[in-house]
């Protein structure tokens, strides 16, 4: 396909890079990337060997010595150029995201636009790495704080956002003066290679050293090298809660830092005072977008009993018209699940919720592979359930929407918060008191809380992340840049005396 050639994707690709140079001579093991569109192979990628990994880390360490001394606005200039290069490749990279991951083309384009947006944001942030000036209690002393880069930022990203989440970390970390080592999902290795090719053009044009933006490829073993490696002071990991707990345990044991973006079990509360059409449309995008494979996907809909049936019927009506098919086609709204494992997980969840007493209102079936090119296509499901069902308490990475009734607002909030995850949340209401209650300390316990906006589709300007088993990390906007730096408090004595703090007298002859 033409877009693969434009992005530098070949039949066999090297999966290890130190910026402009790809390494691969030592690797005999390969990963074959398959498209979820029809299950066919796209290309092979070599898996990073231990020797290559150590070479990458050593190259990154050397690059850090130079990169950290480049003025932050100059680092921002490099990120600005990366954003321009991404603009040039937006359509092709969007197609690759769609082809390798399975989200529809509009979402693929949107993911690349997120990369462009975070580059723009990071350029501005490069001139705003602010510290504070404090008042000293000692005369003729000045106190202030400043921020310094950490070193190597290890980035582990997931298949569902194969390029955007990397950029949230990499572009902010880069303007902070760090160098990056990125391991993407083994399910979407070609996206990583394409991004590395794009960034490599900018590095070469500016005569920058190898080792600033690095790529490694592989599965759990390669990720474990990163988490155990004391040369990586920060690991930012996106994935399941199970994976995140292992990362936190390993990195914490060596007193390293982590940014964890893990599972979500996101809910929308729909009040009897809501605009139901707005609520329905936001719910559909949140629940079926990316075929339910977003960490911010809407999984629970907690609806006031007075409008429950009306909203249920409207959702079924919309679901019936959702076009399921090849994500490369412009009129498709729901593409395939990533693989057979995901499809089977959805079926197990539907069976379990029925055994618990739930009722499938609509959908849930696997669709005929012959009619849909051989990919793992499913019909999104709507299920009446109770919030305390074991399966409802879990995150199933598939398009299943659980409908749950409530009567009083406090009951709705208790159900909303009554799960282990705490990423994204929303309430639809035109009642100001309800809205403010939901956003107050007694309301949503999630890292993201919205009114009359769905759970999915966060903008890059705000800090992204959640609480509880979602991990507690923050990426992207606001002051998330601080996670990639170390804080230093400085005191300068410009007097000819040596007073001590707290008025301590300690005279020596």
From TrEMBL:
Protein name (Swiss-Prot/TrEMBL): aldehyde dehydrogenase (NAD(+))
Family under the similarity heading: Belongs to the aldehyde dehydrogenase family.
Catalytic residues of the enzyme: 261
Region (Disordered): 7-43
Feature: compositional bias, Polar residues: 14-35
Coiled coil (UniProt feature): none
EC numbers for this chain: 1.2.1.3
Protein source organism: Fodinibius salinus
GO molecular function, one term: aldehyde dehydrogenase (NAD+) activity
Domain of life: Bacteria
Keywords (A to Z) from UniProt: NAD, Oxidoreductase
């Amino acid at each position: 396909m033409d877009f693969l050639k434009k992005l530098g994707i070949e039949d066999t690709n090297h999966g290890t890079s130190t910026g402009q140079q790809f390494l691969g001579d030592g690797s005999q093991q390969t990963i074959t990337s398959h498209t979820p569109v029809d299950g066919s192979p796209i290309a092979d990628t070599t898996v990073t060997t231990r020797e290559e990994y150590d070479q990458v880390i050593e190259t990154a360490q050397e690059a850090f010595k130079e990169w950290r001394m480049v003025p932050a606005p100059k680092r921002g200039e490099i990120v600005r150029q990366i954003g321009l290069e991404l603009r040039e490749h937006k359509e092709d990279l969007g197609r690759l995201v769609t082809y390798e991951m399975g989200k529809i083309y509009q979402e693929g384009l949107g993911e690349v636009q997120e990369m462009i947006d975070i580059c723009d944001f990071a350029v501005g942030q490069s001139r705003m790495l602010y510290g504070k000036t404090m008042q000293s209690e000692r005369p003729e002393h000045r106190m202030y704080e400043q921020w310094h880069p950490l070193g190597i930022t290890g980035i582990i990203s997931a298949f569902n956002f194969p390029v955007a989440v990397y950029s949230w970390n990499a572009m902010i970390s880069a303007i902070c003066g760090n160098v990056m080592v990125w391991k993407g999902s083994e399910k979407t290795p070609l996206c990583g290679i394409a991004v590395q090719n794009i960034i490599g053009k900018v590095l070469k044009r500016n005569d920058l050293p190898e080792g600033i933006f690095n790529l490694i490829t592989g599965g759990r073993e390669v990720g474990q090298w990163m988490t155990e490696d004391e040369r990586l002071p920060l690991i930012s990991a996106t994935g399941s809660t199970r994976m995140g707990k292992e990362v936190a345990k390993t990195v914490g044991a060596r007193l390293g830092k982590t940014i964890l973006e893990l599972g979500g079990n996101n809910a929308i509360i729909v009040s009897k005072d809501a605009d139901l059409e707005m609520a329905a449309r936001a719910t559909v995008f949140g629940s079926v977008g990316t075929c339910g494979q977003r960490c911010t996907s809407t999984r629970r809909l907690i609806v006031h009993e007075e409008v429950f049936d009306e909203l249920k019927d409207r959702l079924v009506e919309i679901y019936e018209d959702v076009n399921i098919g090849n994500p490369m086609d412009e009129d498709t709204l729901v593409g395939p699940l990533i693989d057979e494992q995901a499809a089977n997980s959805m079926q197990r969840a539907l069976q379990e919720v029925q055994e618990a007493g739930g009722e499938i209102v609509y959908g849930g079936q696997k669709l005929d592979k012959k009619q849909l090119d051989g990919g793992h296509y499913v019909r999104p499901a709507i299920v009446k359930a109770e919030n305390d069902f074991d399966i409802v308490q879990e995150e199933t990475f598939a398009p299943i929407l659980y409908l749950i009734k409530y009567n009083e607002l406090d009951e709705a909030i208790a159900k909303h918060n009554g799960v282990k995850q705490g990423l994204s949340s929303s309430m639809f209401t035109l009642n100001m008191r309800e809205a403010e209650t939901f956003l107050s300390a007694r309301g949503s316990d999630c890292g993201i809380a919205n009114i009359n906006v769905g759970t999915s589709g966060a903008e890059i300007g705000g800090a992204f992340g959640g609480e509880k088993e979602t991990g507690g990390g923050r990426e992207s906007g606001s002051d998330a840049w601080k996670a990639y730096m170390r804080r230093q408090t400085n005191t300068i004595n410009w007097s000819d005396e040596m007073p001590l703090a707290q008025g301590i007298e300690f005279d020596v002859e």
